[in-house]
# Entry
Amino acid sequence: MSAKADTLPQGACKLEKDKILDEWVMREPEVEPVFPGGLDSLVMFLSRNLHIPYREDIEQPYYASSFPSFIIDTSGRVSKIRFGDHIHAFSVLDSAVQHVIVKMPVWKPGRCNGVAVPVLYTLPVRL
# Structure
């Protein structure tokens, strides 16, 4: 746990060890991380950068979903992506989503008691 984590108040501001990513993260910060420009900009970024594989390349039905989680660190950078209980993408859709996530710009980091904290962020993507 970082030195900053030791300064956080007890209670709602609590870091947890993510066993899959092996990192200390906050799941419910007081202030959520924000993509530059907000949610509308995030949706636009995804639609411009997510290149859907040919339908026949997707192992699942075309209305498939991907539920990646990733860490937005204290500087707002995206790091360590996971898909459910796995650290590797396990479908063509997951791989396409992973390629978009690694291209994301720096976010405004999540905060707890005014301190930037690493946040585990889940971004559902549905076709």
About this structure: The beta strands are 16-18, 23-25, 65-66, 68-72, 78-83, 110-112, 115-117, 119-122, 125-126.
